[in-house]
């Protein structure tokens, strides 16, 4: 087919926030249906339209609806807001209640299509819709009555959750491609039309969200910055050593900003000290302006850490700094961002740290993974477990954006806490209820390296609204969805949870779309098998979903040290095709993607790594220096292997599989003889498949989703399974 001979007709009644009753019923069914077989969502439909435009439709995109013409203008605004490509709106209805709401409009839509075909007699059409309305009949009848005028029919399944289907159209009818989401529709559509992914000169916007895609015009944070330097600090000991040196260099006129989930003032940042409190109070006494935000946390009676955060806040306050205990969250939520920003009188010295490491007891481990020496005698298993974590040190213009991240929260006029059992204890301890004004932002630091960096965040929609994110912000989720839609060969993940089926659905769609894609995920080992706890049910759903989608291309693993003691994986890292990498505070669960405050740095290095394969994804992006170094450093640590067997994604996946099997077999045989190289073990065998019991479906599962992994999206986004 010639590239310029087809136009796209997309029936959009099924994607609107308020849909006809039949589609709305399908959404409610999908929302109530859980399990590894259910991949229904509106994920990727914008990508479908953009691919069709780039593949040959050009500007020939028509959005069909049974809504009346008087709603054309707001409908166009909705389509622009939801990032659909420009096109012509075809309004087929006369009234909302007389037709559209109850799913009528078949005849009027058919009349509109017939007129469109008459106006464009030389055009072949691609028809896109879903199975919840009358699209299957509408499209089939149109193709029958206009033979040769329909190239392919694409139907997103909303009601039917069975296996994907693709009919060849041998009887003269056009091929029909069906899948539960847009990402999985793409391969069949591209095959039918003879188009492939866009290749050519790499563009930053192929990997990063544009400002419009972030969908938060209220923030001061820029879409991305270029010219930044990035240094990886794997393990708490390396991060704490670098942080101590940099904070020690601050003095009068400098600014120390930080935000965290927890802060332990007595945590030593090196052997014999100094402690967190000593480092921060020392900066304040030297004249630096020290300002911090710590999550106030829930009540100590439930096992939380408000006492530790309060002690650190009081110590800094006594030295002339300020630390606010911030409870401006949704119910059951938390502030989970982990960031330190150091601004100097000389902007060349500005630096920031982002990642998964808080200033807490138990975090100062190293590559040997014997645990934090200070916490070795503690009775708290969480603080004395060996821990694997990572942070990035950033220099360059991005430091200004990270300054703005902290400043936006600091300047939020909403009360820090409103419940009496939060407010009264803070008043009794003399803690401030509002922070003093921050100085005007310093100039943007000069360029320091070759990395483009995008700051990604999660803020929920809440009341009162955050002034810097009045509808919330889900740029973290949107970024992962965009990037996984481009993944071709290898997604490497280290994560504390990997719990949620809603998040796993994004990975599953990528695995089904890209048949050569491997997923390697490193997560913590379960403490013990306590049966179907809420957390285990959530993780089983997620693991089963990605295994069903990718089969043996999926490896979920955990880590132990050389003494066979489990290592708690607290890192939050993702590397895609050795091009795009992210390090942050976010986990792969619904809570992190929608409900708690989170922060990550996505990194796209301009430096190429020319070692073969020089372009793993095959799209012209080329392997990038930072992303490849990050993945190789982590895999070398876990596998005790050299780069020769880790560079190629297929070789890396094979090496992981072989070394995991050897170590598992050694343990199963009684740990006799020399221990095989590597520290990775197969995670939770048997979780690859899960059959939910009645109790898990209606009691344990809802408890997990309500309390442990809550959803902070507006209801319309939940119903459509979008972010």
UniProtKB/TrEMBL annotation:
<feature type="region of interest" description="Disordered">
    <location>
        <begin position="369"/>
        <end position="389"/>
    </location>
</feature>
<dbReference type="InterPro" id="IPR019236">
    <property type="entry name" value="APP1_cat"/>
</dbReference>
<dbReference type="InterPro" id="IPR001736">
    <property type="entry name" value="PLipase_D/transphosphatidylase"/>
</dbReference>
<dbReference type="Pfam" id="PF13091">
    <property type="entry name" value="PLDc_2"/>
</dbReference>
<dbReference type="InterPro" id="IPR015679">
    <property type="entry name" value="PLipase_D_fam"/>
</dbReference>
<dbReference type="InterPro" id="IPR025202">
    <property type="entry name" value="PLD-like_dom"/>
</dbReference>
<keyword id="KW-0677">Repeat</keyword>
<feature type="domain" description="PLD phosphodiesterase">
    <location>
        <begin position="565"/>
        <end position="592"/>
    </location>
</feature>
<dbReference type="Pfam" id="PF09949">
    <property type="entry name" value="APP1_cat"/>
</dbReference>
<protein>
    <submittedName>
        <fullName>Phosphatase domain-containing protein</fullName>
    </submittedName>
</protein>
<keyword id="KW-0378">Hydrolase</keyword>
<keyword id="KW-0443">Lipid metabolism</keyword>
């Amino acid at each position: 087919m010639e590239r310029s001979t087809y136009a796209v007709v997309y029936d959009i009644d099924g994607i609107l926030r308020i849909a006809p009753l039949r589609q709305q019923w399908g959404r409610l069914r999908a929302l109530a249906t859980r399990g590894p077989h259910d991949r229904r969502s509106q994920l990727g439909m914008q990508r479908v339209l953009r691919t069709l435009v780039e593949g040959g439709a050009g500007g020939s995109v028509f959005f069909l609806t049974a809504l009346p013409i008087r709603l054309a203008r707001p409908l166009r605004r909705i389509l622009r807001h939801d990032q659909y490509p420009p096109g012509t709106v075809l309004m087929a209805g006369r009234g909302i209640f007389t037709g559209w709401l109850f799913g009528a409009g078949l005849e009027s839509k058919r009349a509109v299509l017939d007129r469109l075909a008459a106006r464009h007699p030389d055009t072949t059409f691609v028809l896109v819709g879903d199975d919840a309305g009358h699209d299957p009949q509408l499209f089939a009848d149109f193709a029958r009555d206009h033979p040769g005028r329909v190239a392919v029919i694409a139907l997103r399944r909303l009601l039917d959750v069975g296996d994907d289907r693709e009919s060849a159209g041998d009887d003269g009818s056009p091929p029909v491609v069906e899948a539960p989401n847009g990402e999985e529709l793409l391969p069949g559509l591209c095959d039918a039309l003879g188009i492939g992914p866009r290749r050519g000169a790499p563009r930053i916007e192929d990997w990063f969200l544009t400002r419009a895609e972030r969908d938060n015009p209220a923030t001061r944070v820029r879409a991305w910055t270029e010219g930044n330097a990035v240094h990886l600090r794997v393990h708490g000991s390396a991060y704490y050593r670098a942080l101590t040196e940099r904070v020690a260099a601050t003095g009068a006129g400098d600014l120390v900003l930080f935000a965290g989930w927890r802060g332990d003032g007595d945590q030593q940042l090196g052997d014999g000290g100094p402690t967190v409190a000593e480092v921060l109070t020392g900066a304040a006494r030297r004249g630096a302006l020290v300002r911090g935000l710590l999550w106030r946390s829930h009540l100590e009676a439930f096992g939380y850490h408000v006492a530790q955060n309060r002690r650190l806040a009081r110590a800094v306050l006594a030295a002339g700094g300020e630390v606010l205990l911030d409870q401006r969250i949704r119910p059951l939520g938390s502030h989970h961002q982990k960031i330190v920003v150091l601004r100097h009188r000389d902007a060349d010295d500005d630096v920031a740290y982002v990642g998964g490491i808080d200033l807490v007891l138990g975090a100062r481990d190293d590559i040997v993974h014997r645990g934090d020496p200070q916490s070795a005698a503690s009775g708290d298993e969480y603080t004395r477990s060996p821990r694997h974590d990572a942070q990035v040190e950033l220099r360059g213009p991005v430091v200004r954006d990270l300054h703005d991240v902290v400043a936006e929260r600091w300047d939020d006029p909403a009360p820090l806490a409103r419940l009496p059992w939060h407010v009264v204890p803070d008043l009794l301890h003399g803690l401030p209820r509002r922070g003093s004004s921050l100085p005007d932002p310093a100039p943007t630091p000069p360029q320091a390296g070759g990395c483009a960096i995008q700051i990604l965040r999660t803020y929920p929609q809440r009341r009162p609204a955050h002034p810097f994110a009045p509808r919330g912000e889900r740029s973290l989720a949107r970024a992962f969805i965009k990037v996984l839609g481009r993944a071709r060969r290898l997604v490497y993940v280290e994560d504390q949870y990997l719990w949620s089926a809603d998040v796993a659905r994004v990975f599953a769609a990528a695995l089904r779309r890209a048949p050569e894609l491997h997923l390697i995920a490193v997560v913590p080992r379960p403490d013990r098998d306590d049966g179907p706890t809420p957390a285990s049910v959530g993780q089983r759903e997620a693991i089963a979903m990605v295994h069903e989608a990718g089969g043996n291309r999926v490896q979920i693993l955990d880590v132990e040290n050389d003494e066979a003691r489990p290592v708690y994986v607290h890192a939050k890292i993702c590397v895609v095709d050795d091009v795009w990498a992210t390090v942050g505070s976010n986990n792969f669960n619904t809570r992190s993607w929608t409900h708690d405050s989170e922060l990550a740095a996505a990194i796209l290095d301009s430096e190429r790594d020319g070692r073969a394969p020089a372009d793993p994804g095959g799209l012209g992006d080329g392997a990038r220096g930072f992303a490849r170094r990050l993945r190789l450093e982590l895999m070398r640590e876990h596998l005790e292997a050299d780069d020769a067997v880790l560079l190629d994604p297929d070789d890396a996946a094979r090496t992981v599989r072989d070394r995991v099997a050897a170590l598992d077999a050694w343990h199963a045989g009684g740990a006799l003889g020399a221990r095989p190289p590597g520290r990775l073990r197969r995670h939770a065998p048997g979780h690859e498949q899960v059959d939910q019991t009645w109790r898990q479906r209606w009691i344990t599962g809802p408890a997990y989703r309500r309390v442990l992994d809550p959803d902070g999206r507006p209801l319309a986004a939940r119903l459509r399974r979008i972010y």
